[in-house]
Amino acid sequence: MADDLGDEWWANDNNLEVEENTEPPEEEAQAVQTTKKRKGEKQIQDDTKKKKGKKTAKKECFITQERSEEKADEASGKNKKRRKKKTITDVLATSEHVPGSPSDLVSLLKSHYSQTRSVIEQEELTLKGQAGYVYSCFLCSNDLTHSLSSYLKEVCPKWAKVQKQHTESRSVVLLVVCGSALRTIDLIKQLVVFKGQAKVLKLFAKHIKVEEQIKSLSKGVTHIAVGTPARIRTLLEKEGLTVQGLRYLVLDWNHRDQKHRRMVDIPEVKDDFLKLMDCGSKVHPHWKLGKLPPAVQNNYLITQTWIFWGDLNLRESNMGKKQAATGPLSRRPDNSAFKQQRLPAWSPSLTAQTVLPSFYILSAVCLVLGICLLVTVENTHQFKVDYTDAETCDRCLELRKDVTQSKKICICEVRFSLPQTFKLSVHAVVFHLPQGDVFFYYGLRNFHQNLRRYMDSRDDAQMVGRKSYLRAPSSYCAPFDYNANGTAIAPCGAVANSLFNDTFIIKHYPTNGRNVEVPLYRKGIAWYTDKNVKFRNPPTNNTFSLRQAFEGMTQPPPAFEPKVVLASHPRASVSGTTRPLYWQRSVYELDSTDPNNNGFINDDLIVWMREAAFPDFKKLYGVLNRAQGPFTEGLPAGSYSILINYSILCS
């Protein structure tokens, strides 16, 4: 019954299985024999013990191997339970994003209508294309290198002109279809750069009723609409939105949400989009035959012709020509330092060591200039004579209060004296005497030349002497552009019409001798740029005088003929001009002493046409001529008088 000790039982698995089945009976037999014959032969007991120990070892070895296999099976079972199936989000997250193409849209439409359309109708959905040509009904697609605004600028370069031509209500020029309300808001923000003055409307169902959107569409002209397919379809069915003025259809094709899904990857949005494509045949059946406005698919997928809503027939347009230099890099600037903004730049280092010296130098310069100006002001004296109602001018004031008496001549005189110590100045009527020079000014109070409508009431093109504007003044001059007979006024406008027309004659009364008129320079008192650039007379020649140029005569009048205005002159053309309403003389007769100081280049007119910034102001009237008489060193001390032709109207 004993086993052969030399038998290598662990190398044979089959023997182990057989022994496992035979071990229990042998152990029981040995136990019975040991109980009955305890006092028997020791050799038999020893053999029995050796055999029992050997068999027990075999049993333990086998059991250990069996348990390890069970543990391995349990571990593999747990691993199988932990495995999860991959979702579409996981697949899209690891896959490479490919920009959409026109064939993607057609494939979507064909797969959707494969069960409901006939074979012939499905063939109409196939886009025709050749090698080297884009699809004839689509514009170039966005290859994910553009933003929405930059892409639309490339495919719609004449957007400003297109939006101005759009005047239809309940219709839009550019329709953008996207997947959600949040995406709608995002796209509207991206359109800020592109839209310009266009009106943008959001079309989605979140917190916005259909009736409110219909009212907004019919209220005025809307150029761009951005919304979801469901709301756009609802507005089309209720005729709140039409496509009569639609030029571009934009599909937000390539945008992916947080789960990496496109608009057509979401089942609900995809169904709404396909229903939107199919709703037009029920709303407008006549669209099946006529050609609809072009459409654009964006973000990225753009089409040039509208998809026929009823039978989804894609018609060809003039976009089938070969595209040359229309890719995403067609407008890329040259790789130069200037165009790529890589030019070297210098910026100052703002430290105490560099800033403080410049600050001190600038302070010293300003201090010197301030001292010079202060000394000049202290050495400049003024003497004012207010002649509004002084002495005999009070009767002229009463006369001028009546507008009907405005054409009557009123002359008054005001006397004043300069003390011995007076070396410099007088103001409003004002005399300045720096180093003996005297400047004579006239001044006004509460005369607001800074009013906007008053300042705009002039025609600078007419003042330059252009013939076309001379006889056709600007509308800004109204009501001082034409007189009652329809003749153009030159110069036109309220500024020229209110020209200061008081005249002054200054006389000096020396202690011994008779009075002497103070000579004044009446020319050279205007700015050089005004005199030589901004104001010009109409062109004249030896046979065509300044009067003829302004009155538009075809031939000069006889020498004996009296002066008349254009309205009554028998040989004056209809295209002539006349004087302003409040003037007593024409513009070509402003200076009777100097013919070269007449017309638009008259110094008094030029000085008046430069408006003052404040209601109280003074303007230069003349400069003392120190080449004559006792005025070589300025105005001497003594008595003076001013003879005034009082012409100003008073309210």
From TrEMBL:
Checking InterPro entries in the record gives:
CDC50/LEM3_fam, Cms1, P-loop_NTPase
Q: Give the protein's recorded name.
A: Uncharacterized protein
Swiss-Prot/TrEMBL keywords: Membrane, Transmembrane, Transmembrane helix
- Record's compositionally biased regions (Basic and acidic residues): 58-77
Q: Magnesium among the record's keywords? A: no
Region annotated Disordered sits at 1-90
By its UniProt entry, which Pfam families does this protein fall under?
CDC50 (PF03381), CMS1 (PF14617)
Q: Where is the composition biased (Acidic residues)?
A: 16-29
Organism this protein belongs to:
Danionella cerebrum
Q: Where in the cell is it found?
A: Membrane
